[in-house]
C-alpha cells in the first residue's frame, strides 16, 4: 500500500519530465530547421555578393526576399520599410494628402476596398471593387503593397492619373485625380429620417470613432429616435477596440462580440460585451462589398445574437489579425497571427491560397431583396451553415452574408464618364453661383429641400451640354437609364453645398434602394431583437 502511495507521484513526475523534454526536443528540432534555412539564405547572399557580375544593393535584395517570403503566407502579412513605417499610422491618427482610398492587393492587383467619404476619389465616382492597373501610365500590376502609398499620396493640389478596370465594364476608365487633404472624421452623417428612425453613417473605425458614434446616437435619442439604421457600407475597418465598443452598445454585457484564434494560444483572445445604452433600440445594419474587418465584427455580432438585421451585399471578408513586430533597422513586419470569428464561430476571412484570394463559396448570383433563408437551400449551398443564438440560419465561408440581399444598380458608361471628369460637381458649383441665396431662403432645412425641390429638365440639359463640351457625348439610352440617378446626384450635391454631409446623405436616401428596403424591415427587426434577449 505504501509503495503505491509513493509510486503514483513518481509516475506523474516522470510523465511531466517526459512531456517537458519532448517539448524541448520539438523546439530544438524546429529551431534547427529554421537555422538551416537561414544558413542557406546567408550562403546565397554571400555568393551573390562575391561573384555577381554587377554591384548589388544587399538591403534591397533582403527586403525583396522578405516580401517574396510573405507573399506565400496570406494576403495581409506585409513587410514595412523604415520610411513607410513613419507614415503608416497617418490614416487613423493624423491628416494626410492623397487620393483618398482604402486599398488591398487582391491576386496581384491593386484593388479599391473603399473610397474614403468626402475624398477626391469618391467625388469622381471611383468605387469599391475598382482595380487600378496603371498609375500615371505605368502598369501597377504586381505592385508591392508598400509601394502603393508612394505612388498615390502626394501634396495637396498635385495630380495623378489612374487607369481602372471596373467589374462589368469591358473598357478601361482613366481618372485624373487632384490630391487633397483626406478627411479623417469617421461619422459622416447622423440625422432623423422621420419621427422615429435615426440614421448614422460610419465610414471607418479610427481612434475617435466610438466617441463620435456615441455623440451622434445621443443627439438622435434626444430628438426622439426609437429605431436606428447603422450604415457601414464602404467602411474598410480599422481599430478592433472601436468596433468592439460600438457593438457593445447594442448587446447585453458578458456576451461574446468576437474572438480570435491562432496557432499559438497566446494569440487567442475573446472580446465580451461591456453593455451599453442602446440595447432596446431595434437596429438594421447596411453593408456592401466595401465593408471589411471591424465593420464585419459589428455586423457579424449583431447578426449572430439576433440583435439586428443585415441588409445589402456580402461584405469583403477581411478576418486576419496582424501583429506588428519592430525590426532593428526601423522597419517592421506585420504578421498574421490569428483569425477573427463571429460569436457563433463563423470565420470572417474569405478563402485564400497563399497571398491570393479564390472564388470558393462566392455568392455572386445574389437575387435582389431575397431573404437569405428563403433563397438558399442549405443542402446545396457551398458555404458552411451556422445557426444564430435564436436559431436562424446564417452562412459562413467568408464575409458577412446579409439577411436581405439588395444590389445597387450599375451606372452606364455615360454617367461614369460624367462622374470620372467630376462634371456633376462642376455643374452644381456653377448652378449654385446664381441660385444659392434663393434656395437658402426658400427651404428651411435639408428635409424641406429634399421633399420639395425638383431637378428640372433644363438643369439636366445643362449638365448634358457640359458633358458634350468636355468630350462626354450624350448617349440618349444611357441618359434615360440613369436619369433618376443624375437627378438625385445633382440634388444631393446641392444639399452638400449648403448643409454639408448630413444634408447630402439625407437627400440621397430617398433614392437609396438598400436604405429604402431597410426601412420596411423594422417590424421584423423588432421581432428579431426579442430572440436576442
Brief summary of the model shown:
With 533 residues, the chain is an alpha+beta fold. The chain is built from 18 helices and 23 strands. The termini are far apart.
Give a written overview of the molecule.
With 533 residues, the chain is of the alpha+beta class. It has 3 domains: 95-181, PDZ domain (Pdz3 Domain), CATH 2.30.42; 187-357 and 373-405, 2-enoyl-CoA Hydratase, Chain A, domain 1, CATH 3.90.226; 413-516, no CATH class. The protein has 18 helices and 23 strands. Strands 3, 4, 5, 6, 7 and 8 form a 6-stranded antiparallel sheet that branches. Helix 7 runs parallel beside helix 8 (240-248) and helix 8 (240-248) packs parallel to helix 9 (294-304). The termini are far apart.
Q: Determine Rg (CA atoms, Å).
A: 27 Å
* Share of residues in strands: 15-25%
Uncertain parts: 9-21, 23-29, 360-370, 372-380
From the helix content, strand content and strand pairing, which structural class follows? alpha+beta
CATH architectural category of the largest domain:
Alpha-Beta Complex
CATH evolutionary superfamily of the largest domain: 2-enoyl-CoA Hydratase, Chain A, domain 1
By DSSP (H or I, 4+ residues per run), the number of helices equals 18
- Overall number of structural domains: 3
| Helical content band | 40-55%
Number of strands: 23
Largest sheet: 6 strands, antiparallel
Main features:
single chain; 533 residues; alpha+beta; Pdz3 Domain; 2-enoyl-CoA Hydratase, Chain A, domain 1; six-stranded antiparallel β-sheet; six-stranded mixed β-sheet; 18 helices; 23 strands; 20% strand; globular
Amino acid at each position: 500500500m505504501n509503495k503505491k502511495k509513493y509510486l503514483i507521484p513518481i509516475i506523474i513526475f516522470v510523465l511531466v519530465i517526459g512531456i517537458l523534454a519532448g517539448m524541448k526536443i520539438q523546439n530544438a528540432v524546429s529551431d534547427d530547421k529554421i537555422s538551416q534555412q537561414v544558413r542557406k539564405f546567408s550562403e546565397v547572399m554571400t555568393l551573390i555578393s562575391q561573384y555577381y557580375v554587377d554591384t548589388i544593393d544587399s538591403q534591397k535584395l533582403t527586403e525583396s526576399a522578405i516580401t517574396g517570403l510573405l507573399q506565400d503566407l496570406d494576403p495581409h502579412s506585409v513587410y514595412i520599410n523604415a520610411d513607410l513605417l513613419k507614415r503608416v499610422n497617418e490614416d487613423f491618427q493624423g491628416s494626410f494628402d492623397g487620393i483618398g482610398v482604402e486599398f488591398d492587393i487582391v491576386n496581384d492587383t491593386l484593388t479599391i476596398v473603399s473610397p474614403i467619404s468626402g475624398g477626391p476619389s469618391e467625388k469622381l465616382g471611383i468605387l469599391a471593387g475598382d482595380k487600378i492597373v496603371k498609375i500615371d501610365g505605368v502598369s501597377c500590376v504586381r505592385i508591392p503593397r508598400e509601394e502603393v502609398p508612394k505612388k498615390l499620396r502626394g501634396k495637396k493640389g498635385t495630380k495623378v492619373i489612374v487607369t481602372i478596370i471596373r467589374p462589368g465594364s469591358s473598357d478601361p476608365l482613366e481618372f485624373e485625380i487632384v490630391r487633397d487633404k483626406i478627411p479623417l472624421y469617421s461619422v459622416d452623417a447622423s440625422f432623423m429620417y422621420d419621427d422615429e428612425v435615426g440614421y448614422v453613417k460610419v465610414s471607418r473605425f479610427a481612434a475617435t470613432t466610438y466617441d463620435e458614434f456615441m455623440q451622434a446616437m445621443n443627439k438622435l435619442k434626444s430628438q426622439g429616435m426609437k429605431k436606428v439604421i447603422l450604415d457601414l457600407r464602404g467602411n474598410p475597418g480599422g481599430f478592433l477596440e472601436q468596433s468592439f465598443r460600438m457593438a457593445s452598445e447594442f448587446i447585453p454585457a458578458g456576451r461574446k462580440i468576437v474572438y480570435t484564434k491562432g496557432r499559438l494560444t497566446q494569440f487567442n483572445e475573446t472580446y465580451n460585451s461591456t453593455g451599453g445604452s442602446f440595447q432596446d433600440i431595434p437596429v438594421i445594419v447596411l453593408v456592401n462589398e466595401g465593408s471589411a474587418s471591424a465593420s464585419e465584427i459589428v455586423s457579424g455580432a449583431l447578426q449572430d445574437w439576433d440583435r439586428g438585421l443585415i441588409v445589402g451585399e456580402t461584405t469583403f471578408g477581411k478576418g486576419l489579425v496582424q501583429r506588428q513586430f519592430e525590426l532593428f533597422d526601423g522597419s517592421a513586419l506585420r504578421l498574421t497571427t490569428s483569425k477573427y470569428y463571429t460569436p457563433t464561430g463563423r470565420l470572417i476571412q474569405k478563402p485564400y491560397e497563399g497571398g491570393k484570394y479564390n472564388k470558393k463559396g462566392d455568392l455572386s448570383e445574389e437575387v435582389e431583396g431575397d431573404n437569405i433563408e428563403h433563397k438558399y437551400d442549405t443542402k446545396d449551398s457551398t458555404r458552411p451553415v451556422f445557426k444564430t443564438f435564436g436559431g436562424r440560419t446564417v452562412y459562413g465561408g467568408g464575409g458577412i452574408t446579409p439577411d436581405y440581399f439588395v444590389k445597387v444598380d450599375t451606372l452606364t458608361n455615360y454617367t461614369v464618364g460624367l462622374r470620372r471628369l467630376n462634371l456633376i460637381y462642376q455643374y452644381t458649383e456653377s448652378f449654385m453661383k446664381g441660385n444659392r441665396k434663393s434656395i437658402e431662403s426658400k427651404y428651411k432645412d435639408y428635409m424641406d429641400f429634399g421633399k420639395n425641390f425638383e431637378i428640372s429638365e433644363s438643369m439636366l440639359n445643362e449638365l448634358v451640354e457640359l458633358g458634350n463640351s468636355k468630350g462626354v457625348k450624350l448617349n440618349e439610352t444611357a441618359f434615360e437609364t440613369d436619369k433618376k440617378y443624375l437627378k438625385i446626384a445633382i440634388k444631393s450635391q446641392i444639399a452638400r453645398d449648403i448643409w454639408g454631409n448630413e444634408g447630402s446623405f439625407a437627400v440621397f436616401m430617398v433614392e437609396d434602394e438598400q436604405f429604402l428596403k431597410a426601412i420596411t424591415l423594422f417590424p421584423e427587426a423588432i421581432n428579431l431583437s426579442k430572440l436576442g434577449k
